[in-house]
Amino acid sequence: MSSPFLWGVASSAFQIEGALAEDGRAASVWDTFAQRPGAIRDGHSPAAACDHYRRWEEDVDLLDRLGVNAYRFSIAWPRVAPQGRGAVNRAGLDFYDRLVDALLARGITPVPTLFHWDLPQALEDGGGWGSRDTAYAFAEYAAVAADRLGDRVGRWITLNEPVVHMAYGHAFGVHAPGLTLDVSDVLGVAHHLLLAHGLAARELRSRGLEALLTNNYSPVAPATGSATDADAADAYDALHNRLFTDPVLTGAHPDLSAFGAKEVPGVRDGDMELVLGSVDGIGVNYYNPSVVTAPGPGSGLPFDFGEVPGAPTTAFGWPVVPEGLGRTLDLLVERYGDALPPLYVTENGASYADAVAPDGRVADPERIAYLEGHVGAVEAARGRGVDVRGYFAWTLTDNFEWAEGYHQRFGLVHVDHATQVRTPKDSFAWYRDLIASRTGA
């Protein structure tokens, strides 16, 4: 008998937990980055976030009310291994142990992510993802988490959106750890992230567990029919969509010559063999498509971005194009064929300027329309035969949205960040009813 389709929501530890020094948790690169003047919009602090560490039972109750049968969360690496490797913080593991048990008691499948960008600062001080040793530290941490939770958790995600962490954190400097490395060093970071995935997947699979890799995908179109725009689109597609997918499904890197790279540095004998075939599923994070143009003078990159014509936008300014999700799923099938494992839409959502009305209601019709369109795109893709096995809306609660602080609200539940009061939005009720209609609950 096939497993039921997973209807869920997704979150990440650093964005919701707070309690940054509670129970022995050490600093992550995001704790350090958030202290930089100007790094976080309006100086917002992640110290409290959604206070999920203390209010997790309330949040699990919200998940139960929502009717989801799966919950994607992340484990904070510095809460489990404060120095990144070596001594294990049992109190930190206890937190996730309690969370998993509470989810299972409500019939909710836990889907943990091992790395959602919160590298322990101690590892960053030793070279971070620029060091091959960090990949081995990650595998050790994965083994520790799996040994504690693997008797109840069968499906794991190794990395979340490594292309975003690589580019925003190591090339553009707008995310932690805030570096602006040259192309060769950035691609070295990419390889060490891939190696970390491969090593962690080996640990998980040796224990009879599934290993997934979650990537951010954005279907790319050239702004015009010109050859230069087409070349720019190919370059961006190779970077954004293929850099972390081709190696695990084909055993080779995409063509990165547009970036002046003849090869990805740091690859040693056996690395690509380790990475190839190391996934039991691909997580698809989709928010919007990309229109790409040839670079302007002084760009420094082989592409620039254009606007998606005629599309409404979210509060983040991202174009709303539900059919882009369907196109993403189709492209993966077209590109990888029989090598493609099952797909899971592990993030999809939109930020809007939601507010609690005097009557206590949070009306968010734009988010409902967004979700309705994107769920429709997933179901249409399944109707075409695409093997999609889950949909996770981003996210349960309004949270700390990285460099944007608390300005972007993606949640199905409104959070007053001064009081931590949770108020389900209209979209919460809509998604609850949708899930019930699909599961017969």
TrEMBL record:
Belongs to the glycosyl hydrolase 1 family. The lineage of its organism: Bacteria, Bacillati, Actinomycetota, Actinomycetes, Streptosporangiales. The keyword Hydrolase applies. This is Beta-glucosidase. SUPFAM superfamilies: (Trans)glycosidases (SSF51445). Its EC number is 3.2.1.21. Gene3D superfamilies: Glycosidases. It catalyses: Hydrolysis of terminal, non-reducing beta-D-glucosyl residues with release of beta-D-glucose. GO terms for molecular function: beta-glucosidase activity.
